Task: structure prediction
Amino acid sequence: MSQPPPTPLPPAPPIRRYVCRRAPFPPAELDGRLDKAFWAGAVWTDDFVDIEGELRPRPRWRTRVKMLWDDSCFYFGCEMEEPHLWATLTERESVIFHDNDFEIFLNPTCDRLNYYEFEMNALNTVWDLFLARPYRDGGQADNGWDIGGLRTAVHLDGTLNDPSDVDRGWSVEVAIPFAAFDRHSDGARPPRPGEVWKVNFSRVEWDLRVEDGRYVKIPGRPEHNWVWSPMGLVDMHLPERWGEVEFGGK
Result:
């Protein structure tokens, strides 16, 4: 018996683009703050939208990212408005999107193959994984891949897991050495000026309520998926629909 044809995908939304500037100097330390000299020359991305794009309402809280690079690392800074800072997971390689989180997706060769995923929550707990191909194509996540030399930091503008007040948000810094991207065919190396990678970012946000003085998820409500470059459907694992980042020269 022949297999039914795969369900056709909805049309792809327009792909967002970003020119990533060179870092002015190596950052001495990461503290999660984006108001320091290191980030001053980096431009913000467009604000995040719903993963389905114009089919869904705009996110109720702002999310945006800055990027920089040098010969050693790819740097990311994300700023997220959030009135209810909440996180529970503390063990590396936990399924971080079960909390509110920030996620990075990278496909250096722009061919849908051999791509990387990174997630972190407001406790600075991380999950990094590699996929040789998308799940739709039979891909399996390799949780054994770790980002060697990874540096991350979180800054909280408010109080974590405290429903008694209203918070302002959180920001993160991530530094990923290019040497960590060792699974794709072009090898682990810094990009060349003018080179383009497929990149996207996601923010998972859950609806919460307060019970017995603590935050809990509202039962039966799915998560919100807010992204930089919209996908047109609820599936981040379509690298051909990710945004495009060009690495600028000096």
Summary: The first strand starts at residue 17 and ends at 22. Residues 86 and 161 are 5 Å apart (CA to CA).
